[in-house]
Amino acid sequence: MKKLFPKSLLAIALCCSAGIRVSAQQKDTIPVPVTSQPQVPMALGNPQQYEIAEITVTGTQYLDKSLLISLSGLNVGDKVVYPGGDQFAKAIQTLWGQRLFANVAIYVTKVEDGKIWLEINLTERPRLANFIFRGIKKSEAEDLAKKATLRKGSVITESMKQNTIAVIRKNYEEKGFRNVTVNVTERTDTSQVNSADVIFTVIKGNKVKINDINIVGNQNISDAKIKKKMKGTKERTRFTLHPDEYQVYTDSVEQQSDYWRTFGFLVPTRTAEALDPYFRFKLFTSAKFNETKYMEDKEKVIAYYNSQGFRDAQILRDTTYKTPAGGLNIDMEMLEGRKYYFGDITWKGNARYNDSLLTRVLGIKKGDTYNLELLEKRLGKQLSPEGGDISGLYMDYGYLFFRVDPVEVGIHGDTIDYEIRITEGPQATIKEVRISGNDKTNEHVIRRELRTLPGEKFSRADLIRSQRQIANLGYFNPETIGINPVPNIQDGTVDIDYKVEEKANDQLELSAGWGGYIGLTGTLGVTFNNFSLRNIFRKESWDPLPSGDGQKLSVRVSSNGRAYRSYNFSFTEPWLGGKKQNQFSVSFYSSYQNPSAYNEYIYGTTTSEDAYFKVLGASVSLGKQLKWPDDYFTLIYSLNYQQYKLKNYNYFNIPGFDDGTSNNISFKLTLARSSVDQQIFPRSGSNFMLSGQFTPPYSVFNPEKDYTKEPISDQFNFIEYQKYRFNAEWYVPLSRPKGTDNKSFVLKVAAKFGYISRYNNRTTLSPFGRFELGGDGLSNFAIYDRDIISQRGYPVYYTSNPKLNPENGQPVGYEGFTIFNKYVMELRYPLSLNPSSTIFGLAFLEAANGYRDFNEYNPFRLRRSAGLGMRFYLPMFGLLGFDYGIGFDRLTPGNGLKDAAKFTFMLGFEPE
Fold first, then answer.
1. Is the pLDDT assigned to residue 514 strictly greater than 80?
2. Cα–Cα distance, 482 to 480 (Å, whole number)
3. CATH superfamily of the domain spanning 429-499
4. Is 462:428 a contact under the CB 8 Å cutoff?
5. H and E: helices and strands count for the chain
């Protein structure tokens, strides 16, 4: 039977706003109200089965119609029951669940010969044309848009609005704005079809500050100590004084007002210690309230109580409430409980080490204040690189399957007895060592640095040392070196997986300029830190030079036109022979200086005389790693030769030393120890260096001759001296790394000393090889084989008297110091530890001075300075840095810091 239906509603049309009724066009359909969940109206009449002949989609502008039909679950040829079939309800629910539509309806447009024609009518939600924030700064709006992941063109949904509101509130609550209100409005965008702008109007309100933290119930731990542990929840800055102390100095209301205005300057005879804990002035403290940090701080308070022996301590109740002035008060009630102490500590299951040794390593005695955190730390429940715990003691000797469990076996009043149960297990043997991530560096370069070798017993100390060795190669990102021991319990072995990430470490130095009369100036230098000499004749390995064997090749050419030029070449093989860590280095260098060119260019003076200063040098060295006192020590032997040629060159202001040739043949012996965790930004460890450099004692071979009576050029024909240097550096982390970025403050402390002298009084000490102090360490004095000791905040100085103006203390040609000492203290903090750009800032205190001889040596007469600096390590260019230092001994009455301050720039290396 054929029957034509007008366009009629089969199921409920789902709308955006509740309360709207949809009327059916079919007589046998009863409309129902729309609720939060779409419903299908109950149909009347005689249900029959039909085959879907056609499905059309109307109302869409952006979405693919065939995809929407597929999502609905209705397909041409499917059998459906009409009226009353549930296939239509499911289709509506599925489409509604996409959250893309403001209205969903299915209409029957035709029924004929057992077939049915359907129309899916959709009203798309508007698209986001623009998102606008009002009431806040542009930078804040950009930050919020990123956090809320707002994107133009996305569908505007209620969920999107609520999510953005939540992000806004959370963002400002963390900054102390706890009364934030957000209003959301939409306006149609006429420039685009079915688009709208969403406007978020933000009213931040006033920032809520913590006024007071009131603590009760704490009889054993003071308020001050509890508040000190709440680092993320601070009271507002205030000044307080105990009333008794207050009355001593203030007798009237006027005096009291003056007193508060002057913040205690009426008590000059009292020290801070005498007034503590009543005299407090908190500076730069943030008093904003952060719910997350507050919860964390409460846990820290309980942890602190536990560490003081109060293991039952708890916060009975706490509340936060607003003050009439708009601030926030916090009330906390503590239940401290009894203070406990350690009782008897016994050991069970230990065969490798006896009880007395384990007790000594544990370092906890009967009667000590109970501290579970300390106990677990000493047992090594949380492994630390420092070691020194029970777990480390066992794991350093292969007991990878070791387990230790502290068990309370008795509580007698306030004393707790422990039995520490140890399961030693077998000693694990290293089975396989696998390395991944080394795309450029050959595997043998890494393996030779490892302390974990197949067939040897597992050792945690060897793992930590291997990680340090890999980091100090300089070829890999030290922050991402991964070590993963994989135990094999069945056979008592362990596989160790090392994962590295290559980083660029070759360096290029390139600069050029035009110096007028002098001509072309510039520097071209390349350093390949992972060079491969054995592949130099293999074209396929050049990229741009053969690499991967851990050798170092450096070539540098520098020129100031006619005035100066230098050539440098060096090569280093860190493992000569490939079996032992014997570092072999060879270098050649040549330089030429023409003082006439400088004088002509700078002063306009000309001379017909040819003048120059030439240096030709070479050195060869061999370093050997020592096993005693430990394998951090290295002994280095080096043989050096320099030839100095002077012609019409009286730089040193030494009469008779204008022309001639000087030869410097020396042997240098260096004992060094380095245990830093990495090279670029060390966080722990130390560097020590003690060296002695000696020329042949020519005068000793001829004891009858007084060389001081010879012409000066003859005295310096073959130079003789003995020279000693000592450098020491310590790196101490001041805080634990936070988060995943491993950032923490590091304190660097350094001390440096140097001394050069004759073998006897029958010779004259030459101007070569001495010490020059001050400046940025880039002085041309290096051409004279000088040790350039930089000092921030000062230019190069030539007198040991700090009160004399360095620029006027001595002529520029002064022959140099024979003794120096220098002390440095730096506080460092990394801003970026990315291997492509390592950046850290520092604040420094520095003191140094140089002396002509022991007669004027005074280790306490020092030039002092302080300042700030930045360091940038870029793989291609090496070090870029600057310091701003203030020389305290350059300060003069009536002048500001301008005359006492000095910028120091660094390029390529850190000066001494």
1. no
2. 6
3. membrane protein fhac (3.10.20.310)
4. no
5. 18, 37
Query: What mean pLDDT do residues 412-424 have?
Result: 93
Phi/psi at 409 (5° precision): -115, -5
CA distance 794 to 775: 6
Look up residue 342 and give its two tokens: 């350690």
Decide if domain 210-335 falls under CATH 3.10.20.310.
yes
Q: Which of 2.40.160.50, 1.10.3720.10, 3.40.50.150, 3.40.1190.20 would CATH assign to domain 626-908?
A: 2.40.160.50
Q: How far apart are CA 897 and CA 900, in angstroms?
A: 5
Residue 332's pLDDT is: 93
Per DSSP, what are the bridge partners of residue 726? 690, 753
Phi-psi group of 229: left, alpha or beta (phi > 0 → left; psi -120 to 50 → alpha; rest → beta): alpha
List the structure tokens of 218: 């704490």
Is the distance from CB of 437 to CB of 502 less than 8 angstroms? yes
- What's the CA gap between 301 and 675, in Å, rounded? 37
Residue 113 and residue 2 in contact, taking contact as beta carbons nearer than 8 Å: yes
Sequence-distant (6+) residues with CB within 8 A of 604 are: none
d(CA 93, CA 91): 5
pLDDT tens track for 240-283: 444 444 333 333 334 444 433 333 333 333 333 333 333 344 44
**Token pair recorded at residue 526:** 């390349």
Average pLDDT across the chain, whole number: 81
Question: Any idea which of 280-294, 334-348, 578-592, 799-813 has the lowest mean pLDDT?
Answer: 799-813
Contacting residues for 185 by C-beta, under 8 A, at least 6 apart: 198, 199, 201
For residues 815 and 786, what is the distance between their CA atoms, to the nearest angstrom? Answer: 10
In the chain, where the domains are located: 48-124, 127-203, 210-335, 341-423, 429-499, 626-908
Residue owning tokens 């290295």: 634
pLDDT over 70 at 39, yes or no: no
Q: Are 306 and 298 in contact (CB under 8 A)?
A: no
**347 with 354: CB under 8 angstroms?**
no
pLDDT 10s digits, 763-800: 888 888 899 888 877 655 456 788 889 899 898 888 88
Residue 219, Cβ neighbours under 10 Å: how many?
Answer: 8
The pairing of beta strand 582-593 with beta strand 564-573: antiparallel
Q: Residue 280 has what pLDDT?
A: 40
